[in-house]
Amino acid sequence: MTGEKELHKIVIVGGGAGGLELASSLGRQLGRKKQAEITLVDASYTHIWKPLLHEVAAGSFAEADEIEYLAQAHRCHFQFRLGRMEGLDRDNKAIFVSPTVTKSGDEIIPKRVFNYDTLVISVGSVSNIFNVSGVNEHCLFLDTPYQAYRFQKRLVERYIRTHTKDQSKNKCLSIAIIGAGATGVELSAELLDVKKQFSMYGLDDITVKVTIIDTAARLLPALSEKLALAVHKQLHKLGVELKLGQQVVGVTEKGVRLKNGDIVLADIKVWAAGIKGPDWLADLDGLEVNRINQLVVKQTLETTEDGDIFAMGDCAACPWPGHDRTVPPRAQAAHQQAITLAKTLTNRVQGTHETIAYIYRDYGSLVALGRHSTVGSLMGNLMGSVSVGGVIARLVYLSLYKMHQIAIHGYFRTAMLTLSNLFRRSTHARIKMH
Ligand SMILES: Cc1cc2nc3c(=O)[nH]c(=O)nc-3n(C[C@H](O)[C@H](O)[C@H](O)COP(=O)(O)OP(=O)(O)OC[C@H]3O[C@@H](n4cnc5c(N)ncnc54)[C@H](O)[C@@H]3O)c2cc1C
Fold it and tell me: What is the C-alpha separation between 207 and 191, in angstroms, rounded?
């Protein structure tokens, strides 16, 4: 017996836009002073900010921005444990993490159990395929960095295959994106942007045809009509074909089948039509979920059934006072929730137990249309909307990512990373070609 008091154990599951910010912040505040033991569990070795996944898919992502969890844990005084959470035992305050296996099926880490005093679930979301047939078999997704890298590899292979086709044939690469939300729209523009780069590198006689399909009658159904119209005009200029108000009823190897009987032929099919919480959340020792599997939380981000378990980010359904829906699944919400939860959990550890209510502040929405065009509205519901475009919009869009980097690395390292990326850009290829 050492006589030392056991530290309060905070376990955070999911090191994404919200979870990694929270672990870093609590590590600096509590872990460093040995006031609490902070553990982050994630299914991946590394973190990429999810709103950049369309850049990963298109090959334009700066790989230096990928963060090693173990190195981040060392710097910020928390522990990192690799693994995928699969279950919960609330009576014994324990989570179950499934075994980690290599691609060939060899087990590298066995099934484990981690005990907590306070648990935070921030495991993000997955694509909602609405039971449409053929989607899992024939579509690519952008839910994880792994899937985005898979997309990028498929894109390069298709480019090279199309380029080396018999000269007499029409060299066309067709891509169908199902979903006219921010992910689908940003991906379409990014793909046409990198096409210019592929041409510069010699793959220059290929026509790239991008089609966006959605049941909704307009682009960006979750955002304002004004913003949607501005984006519509830009996509039209870029040559993106829009099939709006069209329901997808199936996907095959050849293309996408619509309810009206049409088939949109496509070499690459991408599913980006809405999100839901991962399926396993629906069976988590009695925690309440909504109809899309998000954990239902109170205004304080505590789950409705258990005051020692919190949820945040895309996997949480948090009330949005004055609105008939919950807080939208956005990186800016995950960022704000991480700040609120850091205060609440610090209070818990320091004994005041004051939980802080989280109120979503909508600072607006920006949509990046490739490297040279960004449109959006700022201030959201706070002060009425201000429409922005061009350089200002691009700078504000980039600043969202900088805020995330600052929350993780601090000001100095973020400045160094930004500078090193600028230098790197002058010496490396603009897009990944392998
Ligand atoms: C292409 C694209 C563009 C986007 N653009 C924007 C934008 O411009 N602005 C904006 O505000 N939002 C944007 N979003 C949405 C934004 O990315 C999400 O709302 C945000 O990332 C949610 O953060 P999170 O922390 O809840 O989850 P995530 O950032 O998704 O992180 C979840 C983490 O949990 C881990 N995990 C998952 N399951 C398990 C498990 N069982 N066990 C352990 N770990 C697990 C994952 O590995 C991941 O690290 C975009 C999304 C996409 C896909």
Answer: 12
Residue minimizing CA distance to atom 4 of ligand 1:
51
Residues 135, 252 share a domain: yes
Cα 315 to ligand 1 centroid, rounded to whole Å: 9
Q: Are 209 and 279 in contact (CB under 8 A)?
A: no
Mean pLDDT of the chain: 90
The percent of residues above 90 in pLDDT, for the chain, comes to: 69
Q: Choose which residue among 11, 50, 116, 361 to substitute to test ligand 1 binding: the one with the highest number of ligand atoms within 8 A of its C-beta.
A: 50
Domain count of the fold of the chain: 2
Cα–Cα distance between 404 and 18 in angstroms, integer?
9
Please identify, by atom number, the ligand 1 atom nearest to the C-alpha of residue 313.
26
Same domain for 201 and 235? yes
Helices (H), 259-378: 331-349
Its pTM stands at 0.93
Closest listed residue to residue 90, CA positions, set 340, 284, 297, 374: 284
- The distance of Cα 195 from the centroid of its chain, to the nearest Å, equals 24
Among 339, 361, 383, give the residue marking a domain's end: 361
What's the CATH code of the domain at 308? 3.50.50.60
**Residue to substitute in 123, 281, 315 for testing ligand 1 pocket (most ligand atoms within 8 angstroms of CB):** 123
What residue's CA is closest to ligand 1, atom 42? 84
- Helical spans, DSSP H, in 15-144: 19-26, 53-58, 69-76, 135-138
**Average of pLDDT values for 231-259?**
95
